[in-house]
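Field guide to reading this record: the first block holds the primary sequence, the second block holds the structure written as discrete tokens, and the final block holds curator observations. Each block starts with its own label. This record concerns N-acylethanolamine acid amidase, catalogued under organism Callorhinchus milii.

BLOCK 1 — SEQUENCE
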Amino acid sequence: MSSLVPEWVIPIISTIGPELDEFFPYPYSAELRGVCKAIGISIGEGILLNFVYEATAFCTSIVAQDTKGNIYHGRNLDYSFGESLRKLIVELQFEANGQIIYTGTTAVGYLGLWTGQRPNKFTISGNERDKGHWWRNAIAAFWKRSSPVSWLIRDTLLEAENFEAAKWKLAKSPIIADVYYILGGVNPNEGVVITRNRDGPVDIWPLMTVIKQWYRVETNYDHWTTPPPSCDRRTPAIKALNATGQDKINLDTLFHVSRNGKPFYSFIYFIL
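BLOCK 2 — STRUCTURE
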């Protein structure tokens, strides 16, 4: 962890432990205590492990619409420690009164979600947006009681009843770091990339099939800028989508598009 977080940050975060409920809303405070107890680490270490996980991923998210109006949402999570992480990946179902409210893919011990869906409502994926030292931003915003970006995905999956409600919750809720939220719905043109800073939306980029813009690709760079050649996953994805065509986009073809960058993981969601 010392390679990702300066040593002086650790004791600052550790001071949160005794007053965890003041900083973390329910159910996250209770979940964090349980995780830390189960794996034998301090509360401060548990917080940092969750934040480090949020700051070390390279991602590609795609939302696309076929010619019949069906929405497809695919994503990759690419980690340098992917082989180790693979053993910890779980698919979770969140239930209330015996009903599944939403599902998500995450790692054991991690409280947030980067990939999730509310059945027959919408899907969400989140991509890192690198804006300086993540730990510096996190500490500054954390004291303001802002939400970690992956917790907002969970909260949105729980609370939002439809695509529009999810879009504005993801766009406007205060968060601790910059991020890209990619959202897919159940109706034609319900697909959008939301570029976020800590306070609100920087850009909202929806599907516009009326002008033949039937897909959106987001990696870890603002879509209106040119990605660095050393980390350009956008261009191969766009070329693959254009080669596939809107009339042939489906679960299988989107999976092959998402594999174009040889990711460690691929998660595909199709909204019925």
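BLOCK 3 — OBSERVATIONS
The chain has a mean pLDDT of 85.
The longest strand covers residues 99-107.
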